[in-house]
Amino acid sequence: MTVSEETLRLGCRRTLNGTDLQGFGEKYEGKVRDNYTKDGRRLLVVTDRISAFDRVLGTLPFKGQVLNQLAAWWFEETQDIAPNHVIDVPDPNALLAIECAPLPVEMVMRAYITGVTSTSIWTHYQKGVRDFCGNALPDGLRKNQKLDEAILTPSTKAAKGDHDVSASRAEILAMGHVTERDFDEAAEMARNLFAHGRKVAEERGLILVDTKYEFGKTPDGRIVVIDEIHTPDSSRYWFLGSYAERFDKHEEPQSFDKEYVRRWLKSVGYEGEGEIPVIPDDVRIEASRRYIEACDTLRGVPFMPNTKEPKARMATNLARLRDVQS
Fold first, then answer.
1. What are the Cα distances from residue 29, in Å, to 21, 56, 107, 169?
2. pTM, 2 dp
3. Which among 201, 243, 295, 319 is least surrounded, fewest beta carbons within 10 Å?
4. Domain of 89: which CATH number?
5. How many structural domains is the chain composed of?
6. Number of H-type helices and E-type strands within the chain
């Protein structure tokens, strides 16, 4: 990895926790992204916030830059498989996109049975569930085992502060928030994107374990991929080379994703309820190393962080964009 510990420690003191940009329209704050909408365009600012258990837990150095640049790379890599909302990348932490009406469903693809949260497929399986989101699961599976084939496990899009709920296609359609045609078109895109993502990951010595996709409708009615794609926030990655040996030994796979932070939180007794523990800098830095290594491995080029104070840098980089929009 090309980023030194000294740079990461500096980054710990300069994280982008949030933004308050003027002149870019109405603001909506998600768990990680600050969204600004104006004149049919959306500016997505990827902060350094980290979320798990459906809560914001703190910040990681350069995480927003890693996610934004990796998502931009994947959007370009997959544009012939599924159209997306990207217009431009005006700043290391920002992406300009077509304003879309989000579909109220996340398309979650899984190739392995794993997870530690209360909503994970492994948690449900341990409790005896053998039909997960309309997918029949056989008895005798072990945690982190590869499924016979990748499965789609859709999830509702919860309002801020609420929890997403996994559901079958039939259950999602019965809620009446998405049409059958839109659901099936988005689901097909998700399957194709996941197949390609797994192929690329394997070529890089990684396993794309599971991921989620979000879709929206453009003003002219097209369904496109929005938000992010195949990043360590939306996806789980394991090292291919050590997976089999670790699985045989009943050890957890080596991972790139925020599962590392989830496991640390569980080790100190936090599982999503109550006061959030302060994450030590050493844990923050190790988590960032994993994000950066994932970015380096997948893109094939080293991540070079911009170490300038992020808000001042963004003000400069986005000034031209604001002038164009005004």
1. 12, 12, 21, 29
2. 0.90
3. 319
4. 3.30.470.20
5. 1
6. 9, 15
